[in-house]
């Protein structure tokens, strides 16, 4: 490993397909801004998700295989392979996820059903005894 200026951008010259990530970041942000001005709520949410995906992917792809690069000694950097868990830990997390994920999804669906709808001025100013 060699420390040099602009080394993180070397992945883009080796793998030219990775340029899609920053393009998604910029395009998603621009399109989300346009959709927000047009008051298109759902499409704004979709474009903002695309922007976030592009931004996070840009960082991950440009730094790969490093997660935490060391500025003092490149051999002391934390890489993807150094940060991975053991097979036993991964299996335990699989079992825990299989048990608790359906519970979380069911609770989230219940909360979504209970809190469905938008609050507007009419629902706030009526005299139905709610908390407003």
Automatic annotation (TrEMBL):
Location(s) in or outside the cell: Cell membrane
Keyword S-adenosyl-L-methionine recorded: no
Membrane spanning stretches: 12-34, 46-68, 88-112
Membrane topology, record value: Multi-pass membrane protein
UniProt name for this protein: Cytochrome d ubiquinol oxidase subunit 2 domain-containing protein
A UniProt-annotated Pfam family: Cyt_bd_oxida_II
Similarity field: Belongs to the cytochrome ubiquinol oxidase subunit 2 family.
Keywords per UniProt: Cell membrane, Electron transport, Heme, Iron, Membrane, Metal-binding, Plasmid, Transmembrane, Transmembrane helix, Transport
PANTHER family in the cross-refs: CYTOCHROME BD-I UBIQUINOL OXIDASE SUBUNIT 2, CYTOCHROME BD2 SUBUNIT II
């Amino acid at each position: 490993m060699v420390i040099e200026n602009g080394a993180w951008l070397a992945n883009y010259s080796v793998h030219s397909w990775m340029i899609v990530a920053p393009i998604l970041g910029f395009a998603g942000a621009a399109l989300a801004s346009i959709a927000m001005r047009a008051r298109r709520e759902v499409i704004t949410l979709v474009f903002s998700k695309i922007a976030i995906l592009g931004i996070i992917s840009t960082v991950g792809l440009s730094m790969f295989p490093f997660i935490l690069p060391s500025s003092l000694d490149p051999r002391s950097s934390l890489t993807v392979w150094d940060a991975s868990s053991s097979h036993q830990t991964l299996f335990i997390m699989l079992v825990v996820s299989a048990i608790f994920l359906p519970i979380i999804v069911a609770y989230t669906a219940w909360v979504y059903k209970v809190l469905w709808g938008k609050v507007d001025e009419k629902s706030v100013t009526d005299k139905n005894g709610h908390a407003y």
